[in-house]
TrEMBL record:
<dbReference type="InterPro" id="IPR001254">
    <property type="entry name" value="Trypsin_dom"/>
</dbReference>
<keyword id="KW-0720">Serine protease</keyword>
<keyword id="KW-0378">Hydrolase</keyword>
<dbReference type="InterPro" id="IPR009003">
    <property type="entry name" value="Peptidase_S1_PA"/>
</dbReference>
<dbReference type="InterPro" id="IPR001314">
    <property type="entry name" value="Peptidase_S1A"/>
</dbReference>
<dbReference type="GO" id="GO:0004252">
    <property type="term" value="F:serine-type endopeptidase activity"/>
</dbReference>
<keyword id="KW-1015">Disulfide bond</keyword>
<feature type="domain" description="Peptidase S1">
    <location>
        <begin position="29"/>
        <end position="267"/>
    </location>
</feature>
<dbReference type="InterPro" id="IPR018114">
    <property type="entry name" value="TRYPSIN_HIS"/>
</dbReference>
<keyword id="KW-0732">Signal</keyword>
<dbReference type="InterPro" id="IPR033116">
    <property type="entry name" value="TRYPSIN_SER"/>
</dbReference>
<protein>
    <recommendedName>
        <fullName>Peptidase S1 domain-containing protein</fullName>
    </recommendedName>
</protein>
<dbReference type="InterPro" id="IPR043504">
    <property type="entry name" value="Peptidase_S1_PA_chymotrypsin"/>
</dbReference>
<dbReference type="Pfam" id="PF00089">
    <property type="entry name" value="Trypsin"/>
</dbReference>
<dbReference type="GO" id="GO:0006508">
    <property type="term" value="P:proteolysis"/>
</dbReference>
<keyword id="KW-0645">Protease</keyword>
<feature type="signal peptide">
    <location>
        <begin position="1"/>
        <end position="15"/>
    </location>
</feature>
Length: 290
C-alpha cells in the first residue's frame, strides 16, 4: 500500500534565507561512513574545553541540541560549516554561545525533556556549508521503519577516545516507535516489565541486531528524514545503552513533541516570519507491506 504523508514544517528562518532542509551539496557514528563535505550544512559542534556535543542550526542565531549537553558549567562555543572536527577550513566559523535554555522537565539523562535551545552571540551568514534544518509541527508522525540519517563527530566504538581530527560521520537507520523500543530494551533486562525505560517523548532508530548507531560525542545531534528532497529533523540524539548493541537502538528526543516549546520565547521570532511559521511539503511515497 502506498501511503502519502503530508509533513508540516515550522519555518524558523527569515524570508531572505535559503529554504530550510535543502543542502547545496548532495553525496551518508558506529557503523557509519564519512559524510560528503557540505552534505549536512545544519550540523554543528557544541564544545567546551573538555566536551563535545552535536546540534542543528534552525535559524541565523539559534541551535537545537540536547539538554544533557549543558549539565556542566563552561564557556560553550558552536562551530558551523565544519567537516573534520579539529581542523579549521575556510567554510567554518565558530561563535560564542550567548545563552542556552534547557527544557524545564529535564532533570537527568533518560528523563523527559532532553532538549535545549542555544542562542549564538551573533547571527551567522548562510552559505553552501551553513544552512538551517526544517523542524516538524506537532501533528507530524514519523512512522516506524522509515529510514532516516544521524550525523556526528562522535566515537566509532563505545568507550574509545575521540581522535584529534575526526571526519563527520553519517549512518542510515530505521525508526522505531517508543513502545516497541521500550519492549526491546526490556529483553534480557532485569528491569521490571512494568517500568518504563523509553519515555513517550522519545523515538528510537537502529536495528534489532545492532551494528549501526550514534555514540559518545554525537549527543545533541540531529536525526533527519527526507521528504521530497527536503530534510526534516525528527529527533535529537539523547541516550543509549552502550553503542550499536543488540536490542538497544539509539534513543532520540522526538522533535514534534516540543513544537510549542521551541516556538515560544525564548527565542523571539522575527515578525516577518509570522506568516511563514507553517508551510507544507508532500513527502515521498512510502511503501509498506501490510
Amino acid at each position: 500500500i502506498l501511503i502519502c504523508l503530508l509533513v508540516c514544517i515550522m519555518n524558523t528562518a527569515s524570508s531572505s534565507s535559503p529554504a530550510c532542509g535543502v543542502p547545496a551539496i548532495s553525496g551518508r557514528i558506529v557503523g557509519g561512513t564519512d559524510a560528503v563535505y557540505g552534505e549536512w550544512p545544519w550540523q554543528v559542534a557544541v564544545t567546551t574545553a573538555n566536551s563535545l556535543c552535536g546540534g542543528s542550526l534552525i535559524n541565523e542565531q539559534w541551535v537545537l541540541s540536547a539538554a544533557h549537553c549543558f549539565d556542566n558549567p563552561g564557556n560553550y562555543k558552536v562551530s558551523l560549516g565544519r567537516y573534520k572536527f579539529g581542523e579549521s577550513i575556510a567554510s567554518s566559523v565558530t561563535v560564542v554561545v550567548e545563552k542556552f535554555t534547557k527544557h524545564p522537565n529535564f532533570i537527568k539523562p533518560g528523563d523527559r525533556g532532553d532538549i535545549a535551545l542555544v542562542k549564538l552571540k551573533s547571527p551567522v551568514t548562510f552559505t553552501n556549508y551553513i544552512r538551517p534544518i526544517c523542524l516538524p509541527n506537532a501533528s507530524v508522525t514519523f512512522p516506524s521503519g522509515m529510514e532516516c540519517w544521524v550525523t556526528g563527530w562522535g566515537t566509532r566504538r563505545y568507550g574509545e577516545n575521540l581522535p584529534s581530527i575526526n571526519t563527520l560521520q553519517e549512518v542510515m537507520t530505521p525508526l522505531i516507535d517508543y513502545k516497541q523500543c521500550d519492549q526491546m530494551y526490556h529483553i534480557d533486562s532485569s528491569t521490571s516489565s512494568y517500568t518504563i525505560i523509553i519515555q513517550e517523548d522519545k523515538i528510537c532508530s537502529g536495528y534489532a541486531e545492532g551494528g549501526k548507531d550514534s555514540c559518545q560525542g554525537d549527543s545533541g545531534g540531529p536525526l533527519v528524514c527526507e521528504a521530497n528532497g527536503t530534510w526534516i529533523q525528527a529527533g535529537i540524539v539523547s541516550w543509549g545503552d552502550g553503542c550499536a548493541l543488540k536490542n538497544h537502538p539509539g534513543v532520540y528526543t522526538l522533535v514534534p513533541a516540543y513544537e510549542s516549546w521551541i516556538k515560544s520565547p525564548p527565542p523571539q521570532r522575527p515578525e516577518r516570519c509570522a506568516e511563514k511559521v507553517k508551510k507544507c511539503v508532500l513527502q515521498q511515497h512510502l511503501r509498506y507491506i501490510l
